[in-house]
Amino acid sequence: MVNRGAFIVIEGLDRSGKTTQVATLHTRLEAERIPVKLLKFPDRTTAIGSMIDSYLRSQSELDDRAIHLLFSANRWELATTIEQLLAQGTTVVCDRYAFSGVAFSTAKGLPLDWCRSPEVSLPGPDITLFLDIAPEKARERGGYGEERYEKEELQRKVRSIFSEIAAEFDQKAWVTIDAGRAREAVAEDIWNSVSPLVTGLTYPMQRLWGR
Ligand code: Z5A
Ligand code: MG
């Protein structure tokens, strides 16, 4: 029987370097000959993803609950794929996941419990690496862009909700990394956290919030 792959999620605020670090981790895993698949949420390539893309670029308006459920559905449409990849021994590295879904919608004013409900039972990460950066430092990295949520006040709220979410996980499952440092230092911390997992796991895939 093959050991299953690890499910690694990289979360963080805008401009914290998630996409940069996911790419670096991918390169390193490939160099170590570990089968790996990268995923990114929102996945803007699907039909649901294109509605999300249009909303984020302010080309369409949606009720806050409707867009929340679309973000969640965008994960559910890939849930079976994630499960199959892990079962066949492929490590899955994911750029944002359900925690972004909960943090952003709660920051907009929806109740946290309501936001979490549609995410319950999604494939659960074996580890979540949270790239933490002060919003003012993130702004120095080229400033916030054109998209709907790229505003400093909202990002501050999102940061505080992420820390509420983190408090529910044990320290091995949720690792906060200071992302205000050089790319190489951040990448090294990420590697030190994930390398024990990527040689294959023998316990079953988790489900989000244990259900
Ligand atoms: N959202 C939601 O509401 N609900 C959900 O369920 C999900 C998402 C999944 C779009 O996400 C929006 O969707 C997002 C949350 C919401 N709104 N906001 N904000 P996205 O993932 O498509 O886009 P993004 O998060 O805005 O990511 P980003 O701008 O792509 O940031 P990043 O990936 O964390 O950073 P990066 O691209 O790797 O780096 C940014 C810049 O900094 C770039 O020029 C790098 O070269 C530079 N960089 C990276 N690392 C460093 C270091 N260490 N030092 C200096 N400079 C660096
Ligand atoms: Mg990104």
Automatic annotation (TrEMBL):
Query: Which SUPFAM superfamilies does the entry link to?
Result: P-loop containing nucleoside triphosphate hydrolases
**Cellular compartments per GO CC:** cytosol; nucleus
Q: Please give the PROSITE patterns that the UniProt record associates with this protein.
A: THYMIDYLATE_KINASE
What is the top-level taxon of the source organism? Answer: Eukaryota
- E.C. number, please? 2.7.4.9
**Keyword annotations:** ATP-binding, Kinase, Nucleotide biosynthesis, Nucleotide-binding, Transferase
> What pathway is this protein said to act in by its record?
Pyrimidine metabolism; dTTP biosynthesis
Name a biological process GO annotation: dTTP biosynthetic process
GO molecular function list = ATP binding; dTMP kinase activity; nucleoside diphosphate kinase activity
User: Which is an annotated Pfam family here?
Assistant: Thymidylate_kin
Q: Where is the Thymidylate kinase-like domain?
A: 10-190
Family of this protein: Belongs to the thymidylate kinase family.
Q: Which PANTHER family match?
A: THYMIDYLATE KINASE (PTHR10344)
What is the name listed in the Swiss-Prot or TrEMBL entry for this protein? Answer: Thymidylate kinase
Q: What is the lineage of its organism?
A: Eukaryota, Fungi, Dikarya, Basidiomycota, Agaricomycotina
